[in-house]
Each structure stands twice: as C-alpha cells, then as structure tokens.
Write a structure and sequence with these properties.
The chain is of the alpha/beta class. The protein is built from 12 helices and 6 strands. The chain has a 6-stranded parallel beta sheet with strand order 2-1-3-4-5-6, sandwiched between helices. Residues 152-217 form the HTH luxR-type domain.
C-alpha cells in the first residue's frame, strides 16, 4: 500500500484555507500535517514538526509578514527536498517567471477544479513538477525562457545522449521507476543521471530541468 502524501497548507485567507484543507482530507491518499497563515508561521511549523516533514507545501503568493515567494526561497534553503505548489489568482508571465526562478515545483490557479488540485499534488509528488496548460503556453512563448535562470545552448550541447533521453522522459512525466524500466537501467543510475542534469543545467529542481529542455529545444514545444 502506498503511503499517504503529507501536505502543509499556507494561506492567509482562513475560509479558503479551511475549505482547501477539508477538500484535501477527502482525497484518500493524502493527509494535511498542518496549516499556516503566512510564511513565518510555515517556517516555524516546519522547524517544530519533527523529523517527518510535509512532502508538498501548497503556498499562496500574497500573504502578510512573509509572502509566498519569500517563504519559498527560505523553505528551499532549509528544506530543499520539500516541494512547493503555488496557489494563486495571479497568472501573469512575470509571476510565473519569478516562481520558476525561486524553484517552485508547480502552479495552479485558486479557481481550479478539485480534480486539477489532486492531479497537481500527485504529479508533483511522483514526478517532481506540475506545469498546467497555462504555464506550458508561457514556456512555449519563449518569454519566460529568456528570463529563466537556467543555462543555455552550451550546456545543452554538453549533455550526453543518455542524459537527453532521460530529460525527455522527465518532461513526459515518467517517474524514476518508469524511466528505469523504459531504458532498462537501475533506479540508482536514473538518479545519477538526474543529479548530473541538475549540475550541468544549473536547474534547482526537476521543474527547472523542464524549463531547460524547452529553452534548448531538447523537447518538442508541443509535448
């Protein structure tokens, strides 16, 4: 039996946060570890929750005392393995660009359907990122790519053929186990190639690898 996905919810709007928590509790494979009203409360809760940390933090952008971008930056320094999905009413390119640069793993709008929320959480947990159609269109436009903090063509040309194969499968949302099975290699080998990709591309996480792949045309823009 697969273990429950551990989640923390951070949003200053109490009614929205409580509704979100109740909806997540209705998903059979997830549990909410704690709630926070801003970034400071989140970081305090992370420091006080013991060894068992959330797998995913659902984060609002606009919050008092410490907003979502500041909280994400601090969270990624202190707890780099925790994945962040931004929940926001903001869909402009400048906000998406900033989120990618801070190392967020996914983004969905606050008015999204519950099915997309569930899919975003599960996909981010298993694959390391979730980019919906809006974010992908922004990537395809090239505007985000010009600003994204990932390396350019020289780094792309230095990738081995195997690394490019693995990067393509990552962008197609294959899990580590699925990549290993597809290429007939071990899980450890997949992890090793992924780590090499992060070093070579300068990406902060798997989401950054996807941006790199678009920027260097390693994957088809219609993928």
């Amino acid at each position: 039996m697969n273990r429950l996905i551990r989640i923390a919810v951070t949003d200053d709007q109490v009614m929205f946060r409580e509704c979100l928590v109740n909806n997540i509790k209705s998903f059979e494979n997830m549990q909410v570890m704690f709630e926070a009203g801003n970034g400071i409360e989140l970081l305090n809760a992370m420091n006080n929750c013991g060894e068992l940390k959330p797998d995913i933090v659902l984060m609002d952008l606009n919050m008092p005392e410490m907003n979502g971008m500041e909280a994400t930056r601090e969270l990624k320094i202190a707890f780099p393995d925790v994945r962040v999905i931004i929940l926001s009413v903001h869909g402009e390119e400048k906000h998406i660009t900033r989120m990618i640069q801070q190392g967020v793993n996914g983004y969905i709008a606050k008015n999204s359907e519950l099915s997309e929320l569930k899919n975003a959480i599960e996909t981010t947990f298993h694959n390391g990122f979730y980019f919906n159609e809006m974010v992908l269109k922004t990537l395809q436009s090239g505007k985000l790519l010009n600003k994204a903090n990932v390396r350019g063509f020289d780094a792309g040309s230095s990738l081995t053929q195997r690394e490019k194969e693995i990067l393509t499968l990552i962008c197609q949302e294959f899990t580590t186990a699925e990549i290993a099975d597809q290429l007939s290699i071990s899980l450890r080998t997949v992890d090793g190639h992924r780590n090499n990709l992060l070093v070579k591309t300068g990406a902060k996480n798997v989401a950054g690898l996807v941006v790199f792949a678009f920027k260097n045309k390693i994957i088809d823009a219609d993928l």
